[in-house]
Design a protein that fits this description.
Radius of gyration: 29 Å
Helix content: 10-25%
Pfam families: DUF2281, PhdYeFM_antitox
Number of helices: 2
Family: Belongs to the phD/YefM antitoxin family.
Protein name: Antitoxin
Organism: uncultured Armatimonadetes bacterium
Function: Antitoxin component of a type II toxin-antitoxin (TA) system.
Strand content: 15-25%
Largest sheet: 3 strands, mixed
Length: about 70
């Protein structure tokens, strides 16, 4: 975690944003009191696209037909 003053943060904002993007946490202080934290934004997980596998999955016609192994139990 890196600590910088408000004045330093204003002068080096672009550099600090690059560091935050790499996972570094930057704490910005005013009068030696932490007032803000600069962190990277977590990447969003892609949302599932319902129906995206349509036509890729095939179910056999006899999928729910009784199995020969279980004839004794019926």
């Amino acid at each position: 975690m890196v600590q910088v003053t408000l004045e330093e943060a204003g002068a080096k904002l672009s550099q600090l944003i690059d560091e935050a993007g790499k996972g570094e946490e930057i704490v910005i202080t005013r009068d030696n009191i932490a007032v803000a934290k600069l962190v990277s934004v977590p990447a969003e997980k892609p949302r599932p696209q319902f129906g995206s596998a349509k036509g890729l999955i095939h179910m056999a016609e006899d999928f729910d037909a009784p199995l020969d192994d279980f004839k004794d139990y019926m």
